[in-house]
Amino acid sequence: MPVSDQLIDMRDPRIALGLLTRLPFGADLRVAADRGPHSAWAFPFVGLIIGALSAGIGALAFLVGLGAGPVAVLVVLTQVMMTGAMHEDGLADSADGLWGGWNPARRLEIMKDSSIGAYGVIALLLVQTLRIMALSALATSGFWSLMAGIVAAACISRTSMVGVMTLLAPARRDGLSASVGQPSPLTLVLAIVIAGLTAVGLIGLYTIPATIAAVVCAFVAMSLAKARIGGQTGDILGGTQQITEISVLLILTIRP
Question: What is the pTM of this model?
Fold first, then answer.
């Protein structure tokens, strides 16, 4: 079997880092193109790294005595800096396109436009408010609740991207999502196993409702994308990551 077709390649985590973050550890572009969608199994590892680094900043802020609100904002700021606001931009573009156009072609055109409209602004405002409030609630629940929640949500939400990529074809022939390609079902299963084991180790039985919430959000995003633009795009994947992350964080704020 050619290396490019193998289920696992040790270069895949670096490829995934180069695709999903601005961290200076990405693989060579030729290697990334060779592996294509096969590297998507490593998306949960990207979530683990982003979650761990942002949780580390949160931990420092927590330990020096900052309040829950500032800690939450610092965590979000750290994640945005590491990803270059890629997922937040995808959320805004998805909101503008899915609700702002009158046909699939026009919606895709709006999503490709770099400017942001009213739907995008509202989506960003509401989702980021929920994100910060959920992290603040976790911070008030204790140090471990916050740390574990950040990492688990980061892993699960990036696995949801692999699910949408696998189950829904790209809506356009160009663009980031089309250039990466569709992962195989085995790649998706591997990503789910990695994220699931990580989540169980961090949040225990909360993994079950958190996963259900993430699946529901990913299904809604996928259904909307299919109905409104005929497939998924990089913006849809970014928006999916955002709403699934928020859903996991909100589930973790529920205490028996």
Answer: 0.93
